[in-house]
């Protein structure tokens, strides 16, 4: 009996002690209709308190559930329950606000702030998103508190992934578990990523397929699915049927649910993120779930509301136990509130909430120490990141990539730095182009099927921006011009209609193009229009010096030569005063020249040379004839010399066109730009401007409202504005605009000369390249209408800023100058042409080389003559000394007068022959 009595005494003492420390806490719980999981977690927390009397708590809740869209009814219901609590003398110690978002939630924030009710909220929203709590005083921030739920934090991992992967476009699809209204602007703020945030429209696969198709048409290649496992499966199945898996797309799935993702995908890799409880909290979570049947899913959400409720209870109890709860708490009803009578609170609920040491059920709460809690406090849970491979509807493997800890700016923590690189969508941009040497050159052996300046440029850019590309040619082969109806063609049309991402070639920046597409900073200097013409070729001939005189003149000179030589021979033969007919008279002269026919021919020939003809005839008639021939020769030589110099010089002075003005003032050379080119647009518009100016001038001149003085000021005899371009445009249309560069060059080459034929007006780079690679073309005149070359992208595309940054880097590193050097100065297709004669050069060997041929022919003829002479004197049979009959000298003297006796002259002649015979024997 004594022992039993002792037990009762001890038990009674414990109950007395417990009764003394137990705090009754009145809770006003406000929730939404679709947030039953929060209310269930609250009930678990209340049960947990009831089963753990050592906590010293007794919870007396009043629960109000409303519709987030019907703010009026919601507020009326809350006010009624609140007034009832005041009437029962049980004012709420704290309001637990489990509303999520919308006007209903904002109404509750307004209600608690107006009546100064200590509140702890689990609503969605970052700093400034709770509009009714934006302008809280320092005092109010101590008892109007908000903790963001896990569903509000998990989407923040998208920012970390986008930053890590350098993602430039994204579609973020979410279901009803998540609220993204307040994240449309803030989620990827200050990140150059074009993105769309959209809810899953339904659970119908066909509607999801259509939704994904519309997103894909926006050139989105990175897809984030934030939702339940069921939502993730529906979206992945729809994507598989749309054939949206592959290297060109990337898929990221984020869920608060437990379990693995599944889908009917044939071949897919999905980066999957899901939260996991802290190692220190797993035992507690398991105990709470098993002991208190906290089986709501997602379990992290249940744990959040459980911890939020329990921590709120303990915070109020802490304030009550410590005496920091004001004893004179004043409450007013909803009807008593007039906008100015909000009670003043000295309550520091925030500090009490921070100091609670209760073990977290899933993960600890992060609460900033110095800053207000609202928009900055959250459950600091961790997520696992893994790459799940699905084949034929079954998961065949999962690779752990790393983790992410919930936070507003926390980065991914990867097990290896490059873990995520294999699971991002490979940025494959479609480049539309037009083949244009040397910027774009088709080459089947090249990696992308093309080579050239622009290909080297885009390769340099991709090293900085990190993307892949494929190249297509513009269907119509045009750069892009606008017709009268405002419709575009060529590259610009492909960009406008989003069939291509990048326009890359020698594309000029023009004002009307900038209205429909975006251009990067120029990658090439200002390029103007210039003229291509056929290069004039001066005809050359080794015997060009013979063409100075016509054939008839040469024949006449030759006839005069022979006739004069013949007459000189006749005059010398028949004149009694010639040398051969008057030897005695001229026997003492040093030069004795007998003008035989051979000597006459030689005299007349040498008289035409600076050496002169030598000794002139002795007879007067011959001298007169020689003087006449000298005068004739002087005139002929002087005329030939002067005409030879003029003939060789005039042929090099044929440069009829040197500028656009020269081209416009003549009519023998046709000219035109390419059809549809920027050069064509230039001339067409210049002509239209001139026509418009004329119409304005005509209207102004014929204005009947002008006074006589005003009309006199307009009276002129000539039209004051030039019509050069109007005439040129008309001439171009009559000549016919070529449809391709090849056609234009062919027409240029078919020109008869540089003063008759066709001239092509085109971009200076095109003209310069074709002149560089051929020897029969030339660039004429200075450039005009200069414009830069740049890369075109779709209007509003983030590629503009990325490419701008890359091009500026290349410019600073002088990479662009190197590209120009490679494709212009060191171009492998460049040809080395023979230098053309110009006016300052001397006479070329091609035009005067025949003189050397004449010399060699003369030398050869002389050598041949020497051979003939040698043969003639060596082999011709002549009498020798053995053929002379020996005669006694006495007999010879005696018989010298006889007819049969050899005379002395004959003997002397034969003696000479004997000497020649001896000479022959020596040879």
Commentary on this structure:
The N terminus and C terminus are likely disordered. This protein has 28 helices and 26 strands. The strands form 6 sheets. It has an 8-stranded mixed beta sheet, sandwiched between helices. It is an alpha/beta fold. Helix 4 links the parallel strand 3 and strand 4.
List the helices and strands and how they pair.
Elements: H1 2-21, E1 23-32, H2 36-51, E2 57-66, H3 71-87, E3 94-97, H4 102-115, E4 119-121, E5 144-146, H5 150-153, H6 156-165, E6 169-174, E7 194-199, H7 205-216, E8 222-226, H8 229-241, E9 250-254, E10 267-276, H9 282-291, H10 299-322, H11 349-355, E11 365-366, E12 378-379, E13 382-391, E14 394-405, E15 413-414, E16 428-433, E17 441-442, E18 450-451, H12 453-465, E19 468-473, H13 490-496, E20 502-503, H14 511-514, E21 517-519, E22 524-534, H15 551-574, H16 597-606, H17 620-650, H18 660-664, E23 669-672, H19 678-701, H20 708-714, H21 724-735, H22 741-749, E24 757-763, H23 764-772, E25 777-789, E26 792-794, H24 799-812, H25 815-825, H26 845-875, H27 889-894, H28 904-922
Parallel strand pairs: 1-2, 1-3, 3-4, 4-5, 6-7, 6-8, 8-9, 9-10, 16-19, 16-20, 23-24
Antiparallel strand pairs: 10-13, 11-12, 13-14, 14-15, 17-18, 20-26, 21-26, 22-24, 22-25
Helix pairs in contact: 2-10, 3-4, 7-8, 10-11, 12-24, 15-16, 15-17, 19-21
